[in-house]
Amino acid sequence: MKIGFALPQFHKQAFGISRIAQFAREVEQAGAASLWVGDRNLAAVSPKIGYGGQGDTIPAELNPAADPFVLLGAAASVTERVQLGMHVLIAPLYPPVQLARSLTTLDLVSEGRLLPGFGIGWSPEEYEAAGLDFHRRGARMEELLDVLDTIWTADPAEYKGTQLTVPLHHAPLKPHQSPRPPIYLGAMSERALRRVALRGDGWLPLCVVPSYVDIDGLVAQRALIDSLAQEAGRDAAGIDAVLRVNIDSGTPTSVVVDTVKSVHERTGIDHFMIDSLYTADTVEDSIELAAEILALANEG
């Protein structure tokens, strides 16, 4: 198994991000396979839709949020081996040319260690703040994937769609990974799982230990991805997966590791991203937790 960790980015950890380099170095040295960021452009005071598309509240832990691009750049500069991922970036919120430039830069700085992970988000207010139509976010994502592919593989490059237009421009700077970095997509709904099957290089599911661990659901979702990919003539086995593991406050480390092992055995998923957002207040706490999880996972 490969075990990675979320960079300190949200809640109380966000106020300690001056120590992001320390976190990245020490967690890599402890044996982590990857480091990850999430994305929260804003947390509305009175949200129309709540966290994850449910209810009408957003956890206070998401109110402070550091910039994902800056954090990954800082981590890239002090590490040599770990992959650097996004689980997930709300990609449709970003102008496509600027997004392509940021991702290209991160992939070059890290010498090909970037794993871009995208989702369409659930917050109408985030789209409102960006001047975008929340209800067209799925269509915007589809075209955004086309734009990135064009900018990363053509020079000059241009794109003309119904949601996005990019004028013909010089595009000589390409990512380190050829022909482009692999695109991972967050998905739970059937429509989103179809996008993974047809467009994704990887799938980004999630669980919460111990309150939401639906292994049967993960198995069923993966089966749907595989079936749809095969129908489209794609190699389903080539679609990777990285499971996000959020930890409920007060959960013993042993429960986290046992859950990861159980999911691995039942689903075949072999890469996990563990987020200490709800369990660690400081960067030092997060480093200590990562070391404990890695040590326990490697026992036996």
CATH topology: TIM Barrel
- Overall CATH architecture: Alpha-Beta Barrel
Strand content: 15-25%
Instruction: Tally the helices.
Output: 9
Calculate Rg over CA atoms.
19 Å
The biggest beta sheet is recorded as: 7 strands, parallel
Number of strands: 14
Distance between the termini: 13 Å
Mean pLDDT: 97
Number of domains: 1
The CATH superfamily turns out to be Luciferase-like domain
Helix content: 25-40%
Explain what the structure shows:
There is one protein chain. Helix content is 38%, strand content 17%. With 300 residues, it is of the alpha/beta class. The protein has one domain (2-297): TIM Barrel (Alpha-Beta Barrel), CATH 3.20.20. The strands form 3 sheets. It has a 7-stranded parallel β-sheet with strand order 5-3-2-1-14-13-11. Strands 4-6-9-10-12 form a 5-stranded parallel β-sheet, with helices on one face. α8 (253-267) crosses α9 (283-297). The longest helix is centred in the middle third of the chain and has 17 residues, at 137-153. The model has no long low-confidence stretch (mean pLDDT 97). Pfam families: Bac_luciferase (PF00296).
Entry summary:
By secondary structure, the chain is of the alpha/beta class. The protein has a single domain (2-297), classed as Luciferase-like domain (TIM Barrel), CATH 3.20.20.30. Helices cover 38% and strands 17% of the residues.
